[in-house]
Design goal:
Blueprint lengths: L3 E10 L2 H18 L3 E3 L18 H19 L13 E10 L2 E10 L3 E7 L11 H4 L10 E3 L2 E5 L8 H9 L4 E6 L6 H15 L2 E12 L2 E4 L3 E3 L5 E4 L6 E7 H7 L10
Parallel strand pairs: 1-2, 1-9, 2-3, 7-8, 8-9
Antiparallel strand pairs: 1-13, 3-4, 4-5, 6-7, 9-10, 9-11, 11-12
Length: about 270
């Protein structure tokens, strides 16, 4: 049983012109830190698809989604670069997909041994300036089940899903070790998101990890960065910013196990 792991959160520019430099720096950081798990932002490998409403012409809309899928596929093929010949981290993030003809935003887990595996499709979708997600793609089936990888129990809360604390509570009952919160959120609401992450971690009795896009590219301003790691008691362990876009910390999974038996987690639902 794994007792402690080294985790990395990050902020990445959503513009392709700066992504290559961001990626090169992230690869070096992850290798130097010996990261066991890396969390990427929400759909990070193409310009943010939901920045504007989809074209009314269905063919144009389909083309736009397929371009985002192709861009992600090309970058996801480079995930092995984050590791070395002897060691490769678990990588967690989201990607645009087509499943049975339906567009979705799918949370995935990648390992060198198993490759890329889709585990959860985003269920709570905003639809407003800069975030026309419900217009661009469909919600998933609402399946909030823990994913276990190398003894680590991971629960996905993709961006807006963070605010539905019943899911965090359900993950707690499944023995979750860490909540993975890939985001695409603006600079104007950074403090609100950090507060939400701390509460979700307390509710779940788990570490909460989040990575976010940064830089210009949306209608309502700039993406806010501020990737974080919090512990089960809401302590902020790490926070990224423009000067420190990658943060790595060691977390004790036994602390998440123990937290399930302390206040407020033991209270009956």
């Amino acid at each position: 049983m794994v007792s402690a792991i080294t985790v990395t959160v990050c902020e990445l520019h959503e513009q392709p012109a700066t992504l290559e430099a961001d990626w090169t720096a992230l690869v070096q950081h992850v290798r130097d830190a010996g990261s066991d798990l890396v969390l990427l932002p929400e759909m990070p490998f193409s310009p943010w698809p939901a920045a504007t409403p989809p074209p009314e012409d269905e063919a144009e809309s389909t083309q736009g989604w397929e371009e985002a899928m192709r861009a992600h596929a090309a970058w996801l093929a480079r995930l092995p670069e984050l590791g070395s010949a002897r060691r490769a981290p678990i990588v967690v993030g989201t990607r645009p997909i087509l499943r049975n003809g339906r567009r979705m935003n799918e949370g995935f887990v990648w390992t060198a041994e198993t490759g890329l595996r889709g585990v959860h499709a985003k269920f709570h979708l905003p639809d407003e300036e800069g975030f026309w997600e419900a217009s661009w793609y469909e919600r998933g089936p609402g399946d909030f089940r823990v994913t276990e990888v190398a003894g680590i129990r991971i629960g996905f809360l993709i961006c807006s899903e963070l605010w539905f604390y019943a899911h965090a509570r359900a993950y707690m009952a499944q023995g979750v070790h860490l909540l993975a919160v890939p985001r695409a959120t603006p600079h104007s609401s950074v403090d609100k998101w950090i507060a939400g992450g701390r509460v979700a971690g307390v509710v779940a009795g788990a570490y909460c990890l989040s990575s976010n896009l940064c830089g210009s590219g949306i209608e309502v301003g700039t993406f806010g960065g501020a990737g974080w790691v919090t512990d089960p008691e809401a302590k902020l362990l790490a926070l990224t910013d423009a000067d420190t876009p990658f943060q790595t910390v060691r977390i004790d999974l036994a602390a998440a196990d123990a937290a399930k038996h302390t206040y407020p987690r033991y209270l009956p639902g």
